[in-house]
Structure prediction request, 396 residues.
Amino acid sequence: MFDGNDYLMNTYNRYPVILEKGKGAKIWDISGKEYLDFASGIAVNTLGHSHPKIVDAIKTQSEKLIHCSNLYWNEPQIELAKIISEKSIGGKVFFVNSGTEANETAIKIARKFGKKQNTSKFKILSAIDSFHGRTLGSLSATGQPKYQESFKPLVEGFEYFEFNNIEDISKKISEEVCAVILEPIQGESGIIPAEKDFLESVRELCNKYNALLIFDEVQCGIGRTGELFAYQAYMVEPDVITLAKGLGGGIPIGAVVANKKADVLEPGDHGSTFGGNPFACSVAVTVLNEISNEFFLKGVKAAGEYLKSNLEILIQKFSQVLKEVRGLGLMIGVEFKENFSAKDFSKKCLENGLLLVPAGNNTLRFLPPLNVRKNELESALEIFESCLKEITKEVS
Ligand SMILES: *Cc1c(COP(=O)(O)O)cnc(C)c1O
Prediction:
């Protein structure tokens, strides 16, 4: 049926559907079947599909200028950098095309920051079960052996600490550490939010050992938590933030913001041919202008609370299947009990018209567009519940 397998490398276990078009939180396959898209391309389609303002920005900018080179200035790039800097930690921005590239940039910033102090300050600490991307630097930071094994030797100098364990990271940090990198809310491994006191302690440790604190907000940034940046939900400020997924509302773009201390890169140190092109930047400006206001972000929080509280009711009702609900804003995970596969359950949801994303520890992620409507949340909950009813009927 799908001759895609004859031509595409077999790197994804794809669901057996071919998606064709989308509008808002809805998406259709080539047979015309409609789905509620609570995957959003894994937290990418911030404003849903085919948002008129995004479509308009794409049209307008593509008729003006799609690409020049970073050998020259372009206005959308400067405008986007200004918005990101002013709305976050201040400082300077570098643009890339993906999450892994954003983290590669942060790793190079960390290495250079350390090297400027002494040659043995090059260690980077990252969390067990973290996810930072697939290229070799980011993969070395990713604390999951299953992704690393086939590609060793990795980049040297990475060590792993237990997430949310203050004692463990206290033992592992030293004068040789140039940076700590972590996701304020671990995404890929199953929506595991950091604890506030843990982040506060990591901030103090980084200050004490003069190491940079890097927050990978590739998944949890850009309004996902109901704050524009996830660190704002914790009031713990990092030195460097990496962004991608939701930033372009579907157009590939990533960014790194570095405060004054971390602003170490000079001409020749780093570059990107496509990074910061006027096309992607003008779309990202449109996304940020749409979401970075109190009214919109309040809506994200309200929608998140509605979804989470209703999922909590389902946890009670289907306690033989479901274990726990976790998350902030519209980044919510539902963990399944050991004897039920979240992955298999996502197939059932798909058949019934709801897209969800499986994550690490037998969890399903709800990542709807940030402008999702109340009636769409209700419908998604109805489909989720009816699928739960089906599988509990099957076992009893
Ligand atoms: C998805 C993700 C990445 C990698 O992003 P790509 O654009 O796929 O390279 C890095 N970090 C986190 C937290 C992610 O969720």
